[in-house]
Amino acid sequence: MMINILxxxxxxxxxxxxxxxxxxxxxxxxxKESQANTTEKLSQLRARMKSLSxxxxxxxxxxxxxxxxVQQQDTRRAWITGFLGPVRSAVVTLDHAALWIDDQxxxxxxxxxxxxxxxxxxxxxxxxxxxxxxVASSPVQRTKAVKNPTEQKGMRDCGVRDxxxxxxxxxxxxxxxxxxxxxxxxxxxxxxxxxQSLETYFKEIxxxxxxxxxxxxxxxxxQPNAETAAQITKDKVYLLDAGAQYLDxxxxxxxxxxxxxxxxxxxxxxxxxxxxxH
Length: 278
Known about the structure:
Strands 3-4-5-6 form a four-stranded mixed beta sheet, sandwiched between helices. A three-stranded antiparallel beta sheet has the order 7-10-11, with helices on one face. Strands 8-9-12 form a three-stranded antiparallel beta sheet, covered by helices on one side. The chain has seven helices and twelve strands. It folds into two domains: 137 residues, Creatinase/prolidase N-terminal domain (Creatine Amidinohydrolase, Chain A, domain 1); 128 residues, Creatinase/methionine aminopeptidase superfamily (Creatine Amidinohydrolase, Alpha-Beta Complex). Strand 1 and strand 2 form a beta hairpin. By secondary structure, it is of the alpha+beta class. Helix 5 packs across helix 6.
């Protein structure tokens, strides 16, 4: 499987066909038959790293004398990555492996580097960290991803309370629309914050609520304006992306609602996105 760090993919499952639409980053590259297979080499290296309590191992292109042109027995970086061209350094951590390459060697790397196991760090491209910064950030992210029992309980508990607020908000909204009382995007967002504020340990919303009707729902990070807010109606899809900061955790929930009879096109779009999330 290709390693896609920070790659946003939407998988659309239609019948027996699978279509994947990805926003490419400057870290990933496509797997090709011409590339080396370093799976076993990385596995052995990581086993040795674990035995020595190491998290990251840096492999330089130079030999111990810092010579750029090295003897065959010193081509450690080429051996572990599969990439034969000149390059600065490679890093193997317990979770990932990354190779930093200048732009003149990108094409060669895409044909030789084991992209099934390695990240291709295209130097100079937006979002590509320097080697030292990348190594420093990895253990921090790894540590933050591990939650202790108290944090886990807080996440579950605040999720339950926030869900209560969301259900109360949805019941209120359905009732308003059913009784033909007008509610626009900003009013709906404000009412949700009110219900969230009634819950224990509430501090504030975790980000500006995305309350979007119809075409507004297709705008990334749409922010409603009180003066131009659209009305929530039975014949338009309503997107609500909201969260709250509680003392024991933070929530972020996105839901798509319809208060009438959805069209065939809306059903299809909703189903494809739902399938893509699984």
